[in-house]
Each structure stands twice: as structure tokens, then as C-alpha cells.
Amino acid sequence: MLTLREATLADSPRIGVIGRDSFGPTLSRVLFPANLQNRARTDVATEEAEWRASRNSRRMKDGKKTFVVVDKLEDGSEHIVGFAQWETPESLPANIEHKTANEADIDVLPPSLDQDALRRLVKDLEVVTERALGKEGHSQMWYLMILGVDPDQKRRGIGKMLVKYGLEQAAKENRDAFLVATPEGKYLYSTFGFEQVGDEYLLGDVPHYPMLWKRPREAGEVLG
Ligand SMILES: CC(C)(COP(=O)(O)OP(=O)(O)OC[C@H]1O[C@@H](n2cnc3c(N)ncnc32)[C@H](O)[C@@H]1OP(=O)(O)O)[C@@H](O)C(=O)NCCC(=O)NCCS
């Protein structure tokens, strides 16, 4: 049975693994390129998962809302199958620009990570966001930083549960929501009423789409 709960720091290692596995064909190819990986593939894979786990923990400590969907197994144990992390207006540090611009410098970075690619990615996201939303960016919105589902567990409604829950929280706080979608996520978001704002942009060779969701102006259920 699938249930959604708030993440704890103890969930970070598993979140790191799901992040690595779900972004393998897209972002991971840009951030962990083959030319830096003149090493055992398994070491690189471990490094990526650990880096993602520590980044997740740091963001949670910074107050980013993080939710997981768990599959309750028959023996009572639980298995995390997907996660979402949101930046909310309350979780913005006063000096967010400084922090965001230097996100690549905050974490311990593994040797297999292309640090220039990470910096470019952070910068590109800022530019795309400003182009889509203006100077204020998503500072007054719920911003979906990352959503990942275990590749073996796709199409069970896990992504949908995570997006729906986040949007319900945003609506309760009278906030709109913003994200930059991968091609795989785009359709799911559009079913909730997210609309593309601004041009698509390429990350490596993968197109990404800035998308905005406007909260229901009347009290009502979040669709999707
Ligand atoms: C995008 C992602 C989160 C979707 O998770 P998921 O749990 O498989 O999605 P759901 O099962 O909740 O799908 C809900 C609906 O979205 C649509 N959808 C989901 N994946 C789709 C796909 N690959 N192609 C077309 N439609 C898709 C479908 O309408 C689906 O409903 P249906 O199965 O009843 O037709 C998952 O594929 C993933 O982790 N991808 C890699 C990482 C990524 O791109 N994350 C998004 C970053 S913005």
C-alpha cells in the first residue's frame, strides 16, 4: 500500500539512490559525464547517490519541505519509492541569491561530478526562472526543486501523489507553484493545470520547460 509522509534525515540515503536512478538518462549524464569517469562505474554511481543524499539532508536542514511515498510491505516494513522536495517562501534564507548562486560550493563534491556543469546548471535555472517570472522569481511560490520516482515503480501514481500533496499545501498557504520540467514530467504537471511560461531550454541535450501553476481562486479540490 502506498502512503505519503514527511521525510526524515534518515531517508536521505534512499532519496539519494532514487535521485540518481531517476535522473540517470537526463541530468546525471550532464553532471557526471563520461570523460570524468575514468573509474569503476560502481564507484561513480555510489558517489552520485551519496552526493545527492547529502544535498538532500542539507536542504532539509535549511527547511525545504521534503515528502516521500512509501510502499508498506506485508511484513510491516516500508520501502521508499519516490520523493519530492519543495522550496517554500518560508524556507528562503534572507540571502537566498548568495546561497543559490553558491549552492555548488556548499556541499562536498565528489571527483566524478563536473563542477562547472553544476555551476552552469544553477546559473541557467536562475536565468530561466527570471525570464519566466521576472525579478521576484518564485520567491512567493512553492517551487518544486526535485521530484523522483524509483524507475521500477513508475506509473503507479507515485509522482501524482507527491505533486498533488505539494499543491494542496501550497493552496492552503495561498501560494502558486513553479517548476522546471523534464520531458518525462511535463505531461504529469499539465494534468494539474501547470502551464509552460517562457521558452524551453536545453540542459545538455535534454529540453526543460518552466511551468507555472496558479492556485484555485475558489476553495476546491486540487485536480490531477
Ligand atoms: C516524471 C515522474 C516523476 C513520474 O512519476 P510516476 O510515478 O511514474 O508518475 P505517475 O504514475 O503518478 O503518473 C501520473 C500520470 O502522469 C502521466 N505520465 C507519467 N509518466 C509518463 C510518461 N513517461 N509518459 C507519459 N505520461 C506519463 C500519465 O498520465 C500518468 O497517469 P497514467 O499512468 O494513469 O496514464 C517519473 O517518471 C520520474 O521520476 N522521472 C525521472 C525524473 C524526472 O524527470 N522527474 C521530474 C523532474 S521535473
Automatic annotation (TrEMBL):
Xref: InterPro entries: Acyl_CoA_acyltransferase, GNAT_dom, Trichothecene_AcTrans
N-acetyltransferase domain: residues covered: 68-216
| CDD domains linked to this entry | NAT_SF
One Pfam match, given by its short name, reads Acetyltransf_10
In Gene Ontology terms, what is one molecular function of this protein? Answer: acyltransferase activity, transferring groups other than amino-acyl groups
Q: This chain belongs to which protein, by name?
A: Acyl-CoA N-acyltransferase
Species name:
Apiosordaria backusii
